[in-house]
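Appendix B: complex inputs.
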Amino acid sequence: MDKEKIKKRIEELRKLIEYHNYRYYVLDSPEISDEEYDKLFKELVELEEKYPEFKSDVSPTRRVGAPPLKEFKTIKHTIPMLSLDNAFNDEDLINFEKRIKRIVGDIEINYVVEPKFDGLSISLLYRNGELEYGATRGNGVEGEDVTLNLKTIKTIPLTIENPPPLIEVRGEVIMFKKDFEELNKIREENDEPLFANPRNAAAGSVRQLDSKITKERKLHFFAYYISRVEGIEFKKHSDVLKYLEEKRFKVPPDYSIVNGIKKAIEKCIWYQNRRNEYPFDMDGSVIKVNDLNYHKILGETTHAPRWAIAYKFPAEEKETIVRDIIVQVGRTGKLTPVAILDPVFLSGSTVSRATLHNEDEIKRLGIKIFDHVIVRKAGSVIPEIVTVLKEKRTGNEKDFSFPENCPVCGEEVIRLSDEVDYRCTNASCPAQIKGRILHFVSRDAMDIENIGESLVDQLVDKKIVKDIADLFYLEFKDLINLERMGEKLANKILKNIQNAKDRPLSRVLYGLGIFHVGKHIAQLLTKRYKDIEDFYSLKPEDYMEIEGIGPEIAQSLYLFFKEDKNIKLIEKLKNAGVNLKEKEEELEKEGPLKGKKIIFTGSLETMLRKEAEELLKNSGGEVASTISKNIDYVVVGKDPGSKLDKAKKLNLKIINEDDFIEMIKGEKG
Ligand code: IVH
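Resulting structure:
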């Protein structure tokens, strides 16, 4: 074959393969068998290998994943990626239309109503029909270059036929509910940390540095907006969706065009009633003005367009039955009652247990074993029981009473007069040991992968490990005979433990599980004191000199380092070769908001201020309490205080709650 013919065949194969990808992944209707597809693919791979001069970055063979990156590059969005204002009821939506009519006049408005996807928003830039890059939203102005990862997602076209010179497509990468459940099942079997919901799983799969991992995750992309296009004048948003569909993107399913806000509300309710029938998590619907002329007239605020609004569905609630109430013992000895439920799928994951917090909460709910209850997810993550359906009682329900002895070790439990919790008084209680080990290896502490609950259970029950330091003395022979263990996994675990010896001191300090010492406090401590031995002689007042450390924390630290057995444990870690000195460059916490100072003002809609601050700290950021020019972002909630005015005067970057959530979404995995 001459070169020209080969080039033609390569181009033909690329088109064919992308067409069959489209049939399979977007339309769900393949035309050829897997074998036929594989044959075409193989032919292309071979030709590209033989004739490297015809290689292309947008060939379907490039969807395979590339070597891991060290870090993501930053991409400045050519047009900021905005978020949406939220509406929670009809009134909010009616007001939305009133605002629009005040600007464009009292005429009938057409809307498009679409599902609101709960994933990771992405911007894709195509130049001359070829995907140039794909970026996350980041802070709206700048995002991360995740092109290599996105290329592994088959519903993202690598090329566009008959393209405009430039087009920027926006949409959401999501994971379907069943794929999320499957992924978590596998992670559980491998003792890997679980994702809280499909959104985090999707975000974690895109925002990690190894595109081979992204490729293994089943992800989908839905396009819902064109932020920039050259050479085409769209008149309506519905035309945009049609165009995107023609260009082989997946678009919001069942979207419709309606007249007036009343009909738009009806369609929102329509989606709400069917949210469980969709394969993906839907946390609301989006109403967009259809006429694009109005988009120009209406414009946008600093963070959201005035021509669109998100209607948030109320937290999903489901009925189920309490099969049992058990009591768990945590690493501090705290006893937590937990309701065991008939499994129900709720806001993105299967729920089979709900915390009952403490004895007072059980009394407040008046809950009994075999009760019918309504469950929902608090802050969209932790399942809780909202009400007990007492009218459904049959008389067979069983009362629950709090145990007087620890259900794990049998020792006495106490409830201090000023506490709501019962505690097991035995520090050698296996449940406490297990809890301390799981905390020590957790992602934010020593981050030792493949050590999960089932392994720790075995290690402690068989008395192979009695404290956290014993982990560093584990040998191959200790592991190999355990359940669900193979040679490969045993070696991997030993290697992970070995690697963890070099973690920064702040992680060790946090991992020790000292009462009141969270990740953030551990970092404050190691900014001042660089060697664990420095702590041995500190008095509570020394700790309190550090800004952010109050008397309670100071006392707890003081008591911890006064205790002989704790010093012995630290010595045991040291003898195993665990790093106990802080190195300068390791002070800052890893995370998407590493080193960023953020201040909050006003009340947040989806979480408590305390939760937001905790999330921020966990993402490597710092909570600021007073406005100054050193602040990176000001998160503004409802009814902001005077901080907002000051922030505006100082020209600080102002973001809303959604922007903030988007920024912290990054999850390892
Ligand atoms: S339109 C200029 N449509 O929700 C506004 N956004 O909570 C472009 N989202 O940041 C956004 N589904 O990431 C639009 N059908 C949909 C959406 C959607 C989900 C996301 C988007 C946005 C966030 C706001």
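Residues 82-84, 114, 116-117, 121, 170, 172, 224-225, 252, 286, 305, 308, 310, 658 surround 2-(butylsulfanyl)adenosine (CB under 6 Å).
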